[in-house]
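yo

u said u wanted the structure for the complex thing, so here. seqs first:
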Amino acid sequence: MNRIARALLGRLAGMLLVLAIVATVVFVIVRVTPGDPAAVMLGSDATPQDIADLRSRIGLDAPLIVQYGQFMLGLLRGDLGQSIFLGQSVGEALLARAEPTFFLTLFSILIACAIALPVGVFSAVRRGTLFDQVVVTLTMIASSVPSFWLGLILIQVFAVGLGLLPASGYGGPESGFLERIQHLVLPAIALGVVNSALITRFTRAAMLDVLGDDYVRTARAKGATETRVVLKHALRNALVPIITVIGLSVAMLVAGAVVTETVFGLPGVGNLVVSAVLRRDYPVIQGTLLVVAAIYVLINFITDMLYILVDPRVRL
Amino acid sequence: MSDPVLSVQNLTTAFRSREGWREVIRGINFEVKAGETVAIVGESGSGKSVTALSAMRLLPRDKTRSTGRILLEGRDLLTLPEAEMRKVRGGRIGMIFQEPMTSLNPVLTIGNQLAEALVLHRDMSWREAEAEALTLMERVRIPSAKSRLHEYPHKFSGGMRQRVMIAMALACRPRLLIADEPTTALDVTIQAEILSLISELQRESEMGVLFITHDMGVVAEVADRTVVMFRGDMVETGETSRLFAAPGQPYTRALLASIPRLGTMNGAAGPRRFPQVDPRTGTASEGREMPLPPAGTAPVVSVSNLSIRFDLPQGRVHAVEDVSFDLHPGETLALVGESGCGKSTTGRAIMRLTTPSAGEIRIDGRDIARARSSELRTMRRSAQMIFQDPFASLNPRISVGDAILEPILTHGLLPKAAARLRVAELLDQVGLSPEMAGRYPHEFSGGQRQRVSIARAMALEPKFIVADEAVSALDVSVKAQVSNLLMDLQASRGLAFLFISHDMSVVERISHRVAVMHFGEIVEIGPRAAIFGNAQHPYTRRLIAAVPVPDPALRGTRSAAPPQEPRSPLRPLDYVAPKRLYREVAPGHFVMAETSA
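structre next:
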């Protein structure tokens, strides 16, 4: 138990180190990109004196090392800083935008897995059949389709053409939860289908690998039914690469929210980043990127823990 | 006599290939009676496993076609519906396989895998089945079975896993046990344990056993009757004792003649080539004796006080502990012992593929244990290695000619054109045609690939070669040929070999001196004749005694030791290995003095 606790603490320390490095890199990148929040805020009519005044008011005239120190100290207190434009803290801004991003990621990955796992497994079991060949071809096509293009097609058919679902946006401020969620259906399908292609291919390959293993033959020699052989003996052994690719897909969905939310007009975290970058809202850019990085690291950690759960040979 | 449990009649199995259906076994006929053991013996590709898998109907259904009849207790398995066949598998026929390391599901507990067979066939609940699984584990004598029920396969040694496989196969008291090379991957002492366990369980339950093997020693040990197969055909069948005493067919004679046997050296001082067998007549001419290494030379390799330890979270593995020996030009020193004894690690350390923790390794007088990479490069010209698995040790995308060419060019020995001629010469030396240089490894058989590996090792004209189980994976006839090749190369070029092997009968033929390793230490070292004729250490004696004797008349004269989980060389971090003393029994023959511990 002691060893496990120590290993976990080691992992945690490693994750914090990664985040500290990310925070530093983000801080530097934001400041070396040209542009000035004060100039953006005051518009093109502002005099250099106005800009200098505003810079000193929001603390941008302090030496970089001081700004960096304040940023890192704030992080230690759990404070991501104050947005320059939004009149709220970065933490509040993120929370307010988290809902669509969270549910879109969740639904997309659920849809992707719901398609990929059964299709991948069945395709491997029926290797070389017409079904398998169709799956191989379709997944190849689907993984080369950009999700926003598929999204636009879906909007064209289901929103514009049939009028079944909203085309974009996230409802008004007074709309209920279910109404808001409705807006996520089309984007979630678009992302889910595109992501399912990669997961299907990995599932199929992992299953093909495992189905040739000796213990699968042992299970058959025991008289197990084919369903049991596939689901109990083979699939569990194939899970490690499948979990890996699902974890990567989730991480990519979070990181890709920037594009998706712009295309579907969703007021999520990705949207927040885009507007913050356009306005040089340094604290928001820093805070959001850091949170996205933290989620990325966390997903990797969860993936590693799942390995241990699935495969008794993997140790911490 | 009772009706046969299994009766195979005119069985022919074909595989579908691009060119159409290809018959891999043809017209196989044999019977297995209750309580009887029938062995199917043959070399790789002879169709012995296909025969067994056809009976279980475990071959891929869309790519295979079996005709004839396979009667199990009178019912034809080939016409049985799949659902009925599932009841036969694991219920009426139990099967165990060659690879205990990979035949158990790594993500399920031993208890769960054992219980599954009971749940499937004996209508038990999982709870009842787990209780019964415990009884089964005790029946195959797995120590502290109760605490191990919930462990996963990777915590079990190869021998223990094979016991689990046997328990699983016998869970539902089948009428027939099919054992497909069940001991091939195991050490000889473990093999002896498993063989006696199978025959003991067979006596208890009166089941028939179909035993598939390539090892004539094992056949002599276990089989009442034997079926000899060759390239898909049944060559000969009969009582095992009759078959060994008076083989009717040339192929059977050839097979018997090419078996390496212990105790055939008849006082020869040097190594002796394996008999050359004429496959058409099956007659063998005794191999000629090879020369002794020249006396009074300086050792080409000199290992002193070599220790190799690995630190793990659980402690420290003393893989090699205080090992010393010399290897002289023109000499073969065999390093023998069971898996995990440190013999391969020692070989790898001499090549500096592993860095020693302590001790010296002198090659031509220069210590390479701590040499830098530039010095190692020079060293690697005089030292080469051949590995066990000829399938895995050649890059499948590089033609064999280029594989042999590469070391010559890397070391800048010859310009490219001259190097190509040298490759042709090397191929010729190892008994392959120079025209084969352009072919890729998959076009070669196992024996041919091992010849390619030897040619590659010879390319740099090394002074010595570490041969790590170089002939262990080969069929008997090929094993003899490749061993002969090694002996010829030694005689013509004065090569020294460190011959790492677990195969005592080959070691007896090929080596001048033998070092026996046990848990990282050399327990006995000396001239070959002294080790085999006058073994002093109890472990050496146990190792020699466990080798199956290919003579049915001697069956049952050996007693099996009780099973033991191999002691582990894993020690606490502060463990200090005791200083061992060696006693010189005869000139050059040293035995580790027995300690009280």
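The mean pLDDT of chain A is 88. The radius of gyration of chain A is 24 Å.
cya
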